[in-house]
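Dear support,

I submitted the protein below through the web form. The confirmation email said the job was done, but the results page showed an empty box. After a refresh the structure appeared. I'm attaching both so you can tell me whether what I see now is the final result or a partial one.
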Amino acid sequence: MPYIGNSPAEKYASFAVQHFTTSATTTYSLTHAVANENDIRLVINNVIQQPGSGKAYTAAGNILTLSAATSGTDTMYCVFLGKAVQTVVPPEASITGAMLSSTAVSGQLALGAEPADTDEFLVNDSGVLKRVDYSYIKPTSQIYRDAQPIMINGNFEVWQRGTSFTSAGYTCDRWYQDLSGATATLSRQTFTVGQSDVPSNPKYHLRQTVSTANNNCGVFYRHEDVTTLTGNITIAFYAKGTNPNGGNLNIITKQSFGSGGSTAVETSTQNITLTGSWQQFVFNFSLASISGKTVGAGSYLQMLIKQPDGDSSTNAWTLDLANFQVEEGTYTSATLPPFQSETYGNNLARCQRYFQNIADGTDKAIGMGQYWEAQEFIGHRVLSTVMRTTPTLEYVTGTGYYAVLRDGGADALDALTISSSPSSSSMISWYVASAQGLASNTKNRPGFFRTQNSSSKVGFTAEL
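What the results page shows now:
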């Protein structure tokens, strides 16, 4: 039937109940004081008793008096009709959003920091409320200053200079082979499509095969501007191979403060022990403070993997590297952001800040130009990417490696020269003359540069 009057404030009230241990007696103590017997309902052996003088029981204060003694086998309890002791759990699914006050959240203490991995949150999982640790829902990728990975060519995809190298120098873009008296070959290796040993589906990896070893032989990478990475950093990569005679390789970072800058600082050396299977390595480094340091031109942070300084054995060893990444902050293998790939075009453009391959092999275009004087030929080439600084030539020379095509003829050239003015980080000026094999011709006549030898190369380098 309808309820007349104000709605009760407590909808889920539960009355206090006292259970008694019975014995052959007529007097019992109550846990709550009452005015008289009408404040309780007494039940003996599941039968409700009649209250009042001359009836089944009376009560006053904390004393319950029965008209007849109970026995030890009786069951007895009372319900305190005037005392609600709690509000019980409401029925399932009865709480709505409208019932929650805004202070349920705003009235609580603010955390004031990133939650701990074990802090818990409530989530609605297909209509079922579940709790979840923060470690499962926190961001797994890092927001970079320029939305690009810190490492350039960390997936070893760009190889402008070639795919196999036996000399010391830059090889795979941004990676330098440091032989230190050893004999080795650094080469590009291709992953089998669909392999699962290294995540993110890399296409290539780097391999350094050391046939005659020596201490300090290895590979390094230089990150431009020593001030861009400070404090704690994490270096991670996948690797496999065979170890040098001493049983491990070293990884070390070096802060170089550039020309005229402060003395370089190296971090503590950490060890890499390879196996024949791909495995992930994660290393934490604490870089020296740059406070008070003098930073000159060409500063960098170097990351070096090498045969230990104290291991001068000549035994052969091999290093395979893939998915090399650097992150700001301290991470473990469990918390490390996933490897961040970028398109080949973006990767190439970033590599070309340090090296640009213009031509290699026979009949590859170098650029246009004209005779400045009868035996002086000058040309210009706008670079595809602004380079770190005005570059120098990195190329192979030999008899008849290059040619100037003009008025139906050609002059074979043995070398090329970059004119110091007006060359810049965005445009190169060429200059060749009789010393390079240029024949005399009409002043202001146009011409065309090209390669004419399968071994010829033309590249501009502005490496650190």
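Response: this is the final, complete result; the empty box was a page-load delay. The first strand starts at residue 13 and ends at 20.
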